[in-house]
């Protein structure tokens, strides 16, 4: 910076001859006893450095406006995907967050009734995805000419599985059309004589025939993948919690039935039904006789082993 000396004043004292005796400023490198001229030079240079050209300010303002208008669909994310995309799940299939199959199993005298519904799942499909077809095929796991129990295309239905056809397998397939291609949801349900009567929620898996490769993933797609995974995990946790609660209730009911059965048997054996008491006594005697025979057989087996060894044989 060039300072211009003035000559309009009388008895002018140059600022280089005036000492600064104020506080020292470490950031500005101003020290006591510096000349006032040096102090002014430091301050003015600092102010000039802080002055920004108007064009620069305008450019920064324009850039800020553009940043505010950036959409997630135009931002390419470089985040690690980990398990969000892979296997049979693509970013297109990730938009189908509700994949719940609802079904109910009830026992009847001749077997079990099986009712199902995929209506809630279909009604919650996102925009751009529609149902192509629904297939429900129930098969008895027996070798017979009439092993097919049901072959339906209904979203909601039910049928009876005779006891002679258990165990049975029910295959659910739902084909979906999307802008990416065809998606297929599937779930196989097994019903046996040991299956407890209950309301069940099963998560359908995805067969994605669209391209599962991800070369560029925009921020909005990444957000959809993340939301999809969280929704599926939440659904599975809710399903597990519901099933656990119902199983606990059923376990208590079974325990109560067992205790009631023991009490009723005790009452009968205590004298109200002599024939049952006689049967129990007879079973106890037969069990003791059987145990005695087993002991004899065991002793005979040991004796036979000893005889074989004595003859130089090996056991």
Protein described:
The protein is α+β, with helices and mostly antiparallel strands and 315 residues long. Among the domains are: 36 residues, no CATH class; 155 residues, Immunoglobulin-like (Sandwich), CATH 2.60.40. 40% of the residues lie in helices and 23% in strands. The protein has five helices and eleven strands, in the order ααβββαββββββββαα. Strands 5-4-7-8-10 form a five-stranded antiparallel β-sheet, with no helix packed on it. A four-stranded antiparallel β-sheet has the order 6-3-2-9. A hairpin with a 4-residue loop joins strand 7 and strand 8. Helix 4 packs across helix 5. It is elongated, with a radius of gyration of 43 Å.
Low-confidence stretches: 309-314
Largest sheet: 5 strands, antiparallel
Individual helix count = 5
Shape: elongated
- In the sheet with the most strands, the strands line up as 5-4-7-8-10
Helix content: 40-55%
CATH class of the domain at 93-247: Mainly Beta
In terms of quaternary structure, the protein is single chain
**Percent in strands:** 15-25%
In CATH, the architecture of the domain at 93-247 is: Sandwich
Q: Secondary-structure element order, as H and E?
A: HHEEEHEEEEEEEEHH
**Over all CA atoms, what is the radius of gyration?**
43 Å
For the residues shown, what is the average pLDDT?
74
């Amino acid at each position: 910076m060039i300072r211009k000396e003035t000559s309009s004043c009388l008895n002018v004292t140059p600022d280089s001859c005036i000492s600064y005796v104020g506080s020292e400023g470490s950031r500005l490198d101003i020290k006591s006893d510096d000349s006032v001229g040096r102090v002014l030079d430091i301050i003015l240079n600092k102010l000039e450095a802080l002055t920004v050209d108007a064009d620069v300010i305008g450019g920064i303002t324009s850039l800020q406006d553009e940043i505010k208008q950036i959409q997630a669909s135009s931002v390419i994310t470089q985040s690690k995907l980990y398990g969000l995309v892979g296997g049979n799940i693509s970013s297109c299939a990730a938009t189908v967050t509700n994949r719940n199959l609802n079904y109910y199993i009830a026992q009847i005298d001749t077997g079990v009734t099986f009712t199902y519904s995929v209506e809630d799942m279909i009604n919650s499909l996102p925009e751009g995805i529609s149902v192509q077809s629904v297939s429900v095929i129930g098969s008895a796991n027996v070798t017979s000419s009439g092993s097919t129990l049901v072959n339906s295309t209904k979203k909601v239905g039910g049928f009876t599985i005779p006891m002679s056809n258990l165990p049975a397998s029910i295959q659910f397939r739902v084909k979906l059309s999307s802008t990416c291609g065809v998606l297929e949801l599937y779930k196989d349900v097994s019903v046996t004589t040991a299956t407890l009567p209950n309301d069940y929620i099963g998560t359908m898996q995805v067969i994605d025939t669209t391209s599962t490769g991800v070369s560029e993933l925009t921020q909005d797609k990444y957000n959809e993948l993340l939301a999809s995974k969280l929704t599926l995990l939440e659904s599975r946790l809710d399903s597990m919690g519901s099933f656990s609660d119902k199983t606990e209730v059923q376990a208590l009911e079974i325990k109560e039935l067992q205790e009631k059965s023991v009490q009723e048997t005790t009452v009968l054996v205590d004298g109200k039904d002599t024939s049952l008491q006689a049967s129990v006594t007879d079973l106890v005697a037969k069990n003791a006789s059987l145990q005695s025979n087993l002991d004899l057989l065991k002793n005979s087996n040991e004796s036979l082993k000893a005889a074989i060894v004595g003859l130089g044989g090996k056991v």
